[in-house]
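Customer escalation, tier 2.

The customer says the design service returned an amino acid string that "doesn't look like it belongs to this structure." They asked us to rerun it and document both sides in this ticket. The original C-alpha cells are below, unchanged.
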C-alpha cells in the first residue's frame, strides 16, 4: 500500500518538491490506517480519495488567499491538512466537534510536524464561538442541524454564521455543481464568485466558491 500511494502522489503532484510529496504520502497513509478502525474518510478506495479528495484540495489551495485559515468541520483534515502542507507560512486551525476526528488530527499534526496547525474541538453552531482566523475554508459541510435544508438555504445559513463572527473577511467552499444554481439574490448578498476545478480523472467538476464579508450586503 505504501509504494502505491507514493507512486500515485508523485504522478499527480509533479510540480511539488520531494519533501512536500513525502508529507502528502505520509498523511494519506495515516489517514487510511486510522480509517480502518474509525471510518473517517468518504471512501475506502485509496485511488479515488487521492484523485478526487486530495487532488481537488490541492487545486483548492492554489485559489486561497490569506495568512490564517480555519477549516470548519475538518473531519480527517481534508482540505485543512493539505492547506497546511502547501502553505507552511500560514496558520491553519482545524476545528471539529467529534473526538474521533480530533484524535486523528492531533496525531497527524504530530507525525507530520506541522507547527503551523492548531487543532480545536468545538461545535461551530455553539453560541458565542469565535473563528480566530481571517479566512474560513470548508468542504461540503454536513450536520444534522442543516441536513434537511435545501442547498441554498444550507449555504446561506452557514455563511451567515461565519459572517456574524466578525473576524472573518473571506470564506471559501469546495463544493459541487448545485452552487451554480444559487439565486441572483444569494450571489449578490455574499459577493460570491465561483471557479471551476476541472479534474483530469473524472468527468464531473468541482467548484470553489469565494465569499467576501467585509463589503457584503447586510442581512
Amino acid at each position: 500500500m505504501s509504494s502505491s500511494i507514493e507512486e500515485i502522489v508523485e504522478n499527480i503532484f509533479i510540480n511539488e518538491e520531494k519533501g512536500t510529496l513525502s508529507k502528502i504520502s505520509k498523511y494519506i497513509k495515516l489517514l487510511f490506517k486510522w480509517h480502518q478502525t474509525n471510518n473517517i474518510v468518504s471512501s475506502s478506495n485509496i485511488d479515488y480519495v487521492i484523485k478526487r479528495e486530495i487532488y481537488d484540495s490541492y487545486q483548492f489551495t492554489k485559489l486561497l488567499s490569506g495568512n490564517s485559515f480555519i477549516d470548519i468541520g475538518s473531519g480527517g483534515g481534508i482540505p485543512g491538512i493539505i492547506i497546511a502542507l502547501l502553505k507552511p507560512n500560514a496558520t491553519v486551525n482545524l476545528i471539529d466537534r467529534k473526538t474521533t476526528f480530533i484524535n486523528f488530527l492531533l496525531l497527524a499534526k504530530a507525525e507530520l510536524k506541522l507547527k503551523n496547525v492548531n487543532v480545536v474541538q468545538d461545535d461551530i453552531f455553539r453560541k458565542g464561538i469565535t473563528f480566530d482566523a481571517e479566512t474560513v475554508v470548508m468542504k461540503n459541510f454536513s450536520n444534522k442541524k442543516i441536513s434537511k435544508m435545501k442547498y441554498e438555504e444550507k449555504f446561506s445559513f452557514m455563511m451567515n454564521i461565519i459572517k456574524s463572527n466578525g473576524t472573518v473577511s473571506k470564506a471559501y467552499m469546495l463544493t459541487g455543481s448545485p452552487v451554480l444554481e444559487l439565486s441572483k439574490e444569494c450571489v449578490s448578498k455574499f459577493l460570491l464568485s465561483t471557479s471551476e476545478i476541472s479534474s483530469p480523472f473524472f468527468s464531473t467538476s468541482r467548484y470553489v466558491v469565494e465569499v467576501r464579508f467585509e463589503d457584503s450586503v447586510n442581512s
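Tier 2 assessment: The sequence is consistent with the input. The chain has one domain: 50-212. Strands lie at 68-72, 91-96, 117-121, 135-139, 170-175, 193-197, 206-212. Sent an explanation to the customer and offered a walkthrough call.
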